[in-house]
Amino acid sequence: MPKGRRSDWRPAAAPTPGIQPDLVEKIKKVQEEMAATQAALENELINITAAGGAVTITISGHQRVQSIKIDPSLLDPNDPAMLEDVLVAAINEAILASQEHAAKRMESVTGGLNIPGLT
Q: Which strands make up the sheet holding 65-70, listed edge to edge?
């Protein structure tokens, strides 16, 4: 080892050009809040009614259908296509509502920052 050199010396990390330390802290906080919000969305349930209230779908903020309730009046054995159409429309509506709910929740976390990929 050359004379006068410490064996534990390492050069300091170069600062990232253009990123201020307070912004880095803000980003870390937003990342933590985003992770917490994502976890919470799994347990947040949205109820959607369709077909004039004849179908109720409960879906999570992670777009997982939890339950489907169907009014018995829709159960016509002579017209299964009608029930199929109603269910497809209701499930699609529930998924869209869940996606919109999740987007609003995430926007509430990232709304104050103008960082590509976070807003």
A: 45-50, 55-60, 65-70
